[in-house]
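Quick question, first post here. What does this chain look like in 3D?
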Amino acid sequence: MNVKITISYDGFSYQGSQRQTNKKSVEDKLIEVFKLLNIEPKITLSGRTDKQVHATGQVFNIVIPAYWSNFSKLKQVMNYKLPSSIRIRNIQKVSDEFHARFHAKKRVYRYVISKKEVSPFLANYVTFVKEIHEEKIKEAIKLFIGVHDFEYFHKSGSEKENKVREIFDAKFYKYKDFYIFRFEANSYLRSQIRIMVGFLLKISEGKLSQNDLKAQLLREKYIYKTPALPNGLYLSQVKY
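> Answer (accepted):
Ran it through. Tokens below.
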């Protein structure tokens, strides 16, 4: 039977979510456990996350034998065998046609920053910056909403030739001691969010402007392409 599994993981120790030749990915760890349980490990992820990027709501589907119909037990066994950096959050039966990647409608990412003194306990999970100009970021981030060709907002290695994506929502807000970038889109190009965040942080610093951002979105000028650090980024939710 085909099941949809939602997981969270600390991505700092991994080379990304997708299988790697060195077997140091989140998917490789999942495969190890499925093999131990005599489950054919053909995993379909909703999408890939890069090296050191985290997830609180990554989704994949896999076909499992009918004798594993007790999902609570399967979740318990898997979490026991998986490293503590990966947790199974939910398992549910879905139709045979369900495809975690192709059936996803929206993907939500959050990027977490702080302007407090760097903490050794948060350094792998939050990007620390010296200053944050809230209003500048709140105004500039709205420019990303809508349908755009993000040819100038990705790293090489993006799979598809078509670079057009639709961002349904983009906002910046404060939560306790942290500042959060939140993006909701149909899909993203490789490192697209990190480059967008990097651009917005330069606007916050006063080193770039909204007009610079508009020009790059319109592909008039290639102004800035350095991604923000990966450790502040989280795949929060996949909507179907």
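Strands lie at 2-9, 44-45, 54-63, 86-93, 106-114, 127-128, 146-149, 164-175, 178-185, 233-239.
The two ends are 19 Å apart (CA to CA).
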